Structure formats: C-alpha cells, structure tokens
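Hey team,

Filing this mostly as a record. A colleague (T.K.) asked me to run one chain through the structure pipeline before their review meeting, and I want the input and output archived in the tracker in case anyone asks later how it was produced. No errors, nothing strange. Just documentation.

Input sequence:
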Amino acid sequence: MYRGLAPFAALVVSLCLIALVIGFFIFFVTWIFAVSDAYKMVNKQNDRVEKKRNGASA
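Output structure:
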C-alpha cells in the first residue's frame, strides 16, 4: 500500500518545483525509479506464478 506513496509524493513536490529547473530533474528521476520498480515487481510476480505453475504440474 505504501509502495506507491513515496513516488507520488516526490512527483507532487517536483510539480511544485517545476517553475525552478530542479523540478524537471526530480520529476524524471522519480519517473525512472517508478518504472524500474514496477518492472522489478512484475518480474518477481511472474517468477512466483511460474514456480507455482511448475510445482502444480509436476
């Protein structure tokens, strides 16, 4: 539940700072982190499903 709260808060802060140049940097760093974290979580979930499927069919 709290996993998405930190990136959301960082995006809100970066949008507030967008008038300054630092806001763009914070926004893109947060976006890249969120995308990579989502990719890792999907791979982890896929591994769990694959293990469960292989264990059930054996």
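Quick notes for T.K.: The CA atoms of residues 14 and 27 lie 5 Å apart. The chain has a mean pLDDT of 81.
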